[in-house]
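TEACHING EXERCISE
Course module: macromolecular assemblies
Task: Read the component lines below, then compare them to the predicted structure of the full complex.
Student: A.B.
Group: 4
Components provided:
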Amino acid sequence: MASSTGEARRIILDLLRAAGARAVIKSKCMTSEEIHLNAAMEADGYGVVESDLGEFIQQLRGEPPYHFVFPCMHVRRGEISDLFTRHLGSPPTDDPEELTMIARRHMRRLYVEADVGITGANFLVAETGQISITENEGNARLTAGLPRVHIALAGIEKVVERLDDLAVLLPMLATAGTGQPLTCYNTLYSGPRRPGECDGPEEMHVVLLDNRRTAILADPEQRDSLHCIRCGACLNVCPIFKNVGGFTYGTTYQGPIGSVITPHLRGLADWNHLSGASSLCGACTDACPVRIDIHHHLLHNRRNAARCAPHRWERLGHRLFAFVAARPWLFALAGRVGRLTLPVAKWLRPPLLAQWLDSRDLPPAPRHSFRSQWSFRGRRS
Amino acid sequence: MSAPAPAGRSARDTILARVREALAAPAPLPHLAHHAPQPAAGGLPILSTGASRPWLPDGGDTPAETMNIFVENLGKLRAVVHRLPDMSAAADLVFTLTRERDWRRIAHHRHPLVAPLLAGVPCATYCVDDHGHCVDDHGHCVDDHGGPSGAESAAAKDALEGCDAGITGCEALVAQTGSILVSSATCGGRGLSVLPPVHLVIATADQVVATLGDALEEARQRHAGRLPSMLSFITGPSRTGDIERILVLGAHGPRELIVIIVDDARA
Ligand code: SF4
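Instructor-supplied answer key:
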């Protein structure tokens, strides 16, 4: 069990060392993104290959997943073909099937040769001590089945009481996540190979990560956000996600649920802006199969952020704005100065603004202020 | 499994203490606190929070219904089902498939339903249980010296990887979702049902159950408290939608799933 991301990384690196790992294969695991496992493994000299097709594409692109269910939904097939040609030397093609087969052929030897397989877990069954892994491709089956050592990494909130609970949760995850009655492989593991079984790993390790999940548990108001089964339904319906895309969040877990939990996992001070990026339409709450009150939690985060003492500069800024806004002549003057200097500022890129402009576009300044347009139209009609 | 490091143990104590402390404050579930709104007569269902949604598909009430639902669901999943009267018809089917597809080598395991299918098959066969000779014809462990050695297991993986098809039995067939439950104890371990490009399953009609819960219960009873190290619900051939969300079969697991159901298992 690991309290922090650093502890989880250390445990896994120790396991790899003890296993004398040479080749590591990995199946999709968002928790490993949370602890930045791949970077830590590469820093220690372990080669690791993501076997999930979407994750593999993202690994070759050197990008984190864009969506936690569909990691490369933003990438066109032409780009994937170029990527494979560059890295795997395959001939160009725009056929998704052929592209999938290129990845399949590339991966097959890797499964057979890997000595450690790392997977995530979608559920942990307390009653029977099993972990449950949901997937469509079969890569997790191979990752947990062929290498000599199997390591599974999961957050502590994934635990469910009884095996029977899965009879509801597995179809629920599939229906809400991908619209299937059940995903292709739903597999329960309860340990390494047993006597009498012809194959399977010699060792199995389960690493359970807290990383401030217990802080969410301690907050009765938002405790239900730990019920999340990571189906991604709230992302798919979110008007914000659809417009800004997965990378804009800068988080491991994107979309509405990411905006709810990231301030808890990484600190409210730096991540409270996420809850501002919401129209509060409630589409996420409607889509959520486990009925997390997502949009209210975004409001709760806003309230909590407002309660913390704001930054000195922020306070000063608000005071300055209040001073100007309370004096119409000053407000009009400031507006005029702003309209005139905006194009210059865009061109000059002064120090503070330059960073802000790196990732944003400023709209062109309007010729007339809102107030003058309003009075002009009022006169005309 | 190796003993946890001392650091791991203290982390465990801290985390469990934090969990206990956190749970001391009760938290009502927000959506269970009030009653769900009911749709007007003949109106559309209310999909907003509070209305219960029918997540679970039907598995049928009678054996005939259950069988029909299973066959129908498998078809939707692009798997192939053959319902045959007896084992000799099943053996004929495997013979024909081997000829037509030009299979060179079929992987299998020791299982009373699998053996008769391979008796006259026109190609080489590879039995995954041959490394270490650990089970008898009924899948029961008879002799296990810590399993196959490193070299043996590497050779076994290579051999399996080179096969054109794999044949396994199953623990149960699930109508509700069109799934096949396999286990590492009775279906040839972990690799056989997922590494070869074609997976053939042989089952008897009485193995079809209505729901996922029924299948889990069946496995629990069969293995009497000691569940196999792997239990896997296979629902159609391996697939992916990762490239532009276009469905492609055969991502890493089998491209084809063929289920043979015989009514009468006696020869
Ligand atoms: S919050 Fe709900 S809808 Fe969003 S990913 Fe989690 S379970 Fe799915």
